[in-house]
Amino acid sequence: MRKIPAKLASRLYDAAELIAERGLDGTKIDDIAEVTGIPKATIYYHLDGKNGVLEFLLGDILEMISSAVGVAVSGPEDARTRLRAAMLAQLGIMLEHPYLCRALMGDLGRVARLPELALAINGAFYQPIEQLLTEGVEDGSLRRVEDPATVAVSVFGAVTIAGLSVAIERPHEDPAANADRLTAGICDLVLDGLATRP
Questions:
Q1: What are the structural domain ranges in the chain?
Q2: Which CATH code is given to the segment(s) 56-192?
Q3: Reported pTM
Q4: Are 40 and 48 within 8 A, CB to CB?
């Protein structure tokens, strides 16, 4: 995949709604060219057809998530507060792009076969959350867990599935309000658990 100029990259997001509605198999490259205003030849020059378009969109949203989570985890607050901010950051980006989330759900099997995506998720979310879990023990805001890697994956899973569900069911609702609501619920589960308190 060649470097995509910013002007073209922003127009590719117009293809997300189309892919969400029809699925990647039901979407033709002609349709993508029409909805984005990007000539077919240009799409093929920069990307590997419609698979490349979906791969680009997912990679781009992961970069946005990585950047937002990076800002959240590097703040001056305690680790617990930064963990909440990281979850809110991921949800905020996802809910700003509901059609891309719907496209992701529709083609999850195809996405799972992109090894670069797994590496990107690891760098964008797993590693920063694992680091926060360690820092939380040090600053006293989080308890020690036996397997920080599994906990980081679990937090990512909870945030991702909640974000995808809302993006699919209510794509036109206010993203910021939904992100706040979901973060509160996820934080209640992740940070406080379900067990009764003594």
A1: 56-192
A2: 1.10.357.10
A3: 0.83
A4: no
